Amino acid sequence: MSLAAGQLCQTFSINPDGWKCDPPGKTVEGGPIVFYTRVRSPRDAEVVHRWYYGNTLRQTVRLMIRTNVSEGYRTYSRHLVDRVGDWRVEATSDEGVVLHEQRFTVR
Q: Which domain does 15 fall in, by range?
């Protein structure tokens, strides 16, 4: 399993033309935020998104993905970032291997 793409989205939508992710600027405003991932995997599996405020785990989201070794299987999770400070979100394989980590600051 490998990550083809991982991105924070301040606004996010799915429509007939595709998935649209508008990334935040240098800092993130409080409110809902989306972590979009595209995962390549030779088998059906699970990717896990873990949302942290500082070093405190705030949410774990387990997402089933389908086999897709070329472009990758798209999925996302949403979290309400409700505190000012440093945050991070991780995408891990079902075996616990960190595929991607994204850090951001809420002002």
A: 2-106
Sign of the alpha-carbon dihedral angle for 74, 64, 91, 9: positive
Question: What SS3 class is residue 10?
Answer: coil
Domain count, the chain: 1
Which pair of structure tokens corresponds to residue 75? 């999925």
Rg of the chain over Cα atoms, rounded to whole angstroms, equals 14
Q: 99, 93 in Cβ contact below 8 A?
A: yes
Contact 77, 61 (CB under 8 A): yes
DSSP string of 63-95? EEE--EEEEEEEEEEEEEE-SSEEEEEEEEETT
pLDDT in single tens digits along all 107 residues of the chain: 999 999 999 999 998 888 899 999 878 989 999 999 999 999 999 999 999 999 999 999 999 999 998 889 999 999 999 999 999 999 999 899 999 999 999 98
CATH of the domain at 61: 2.60.40.1930
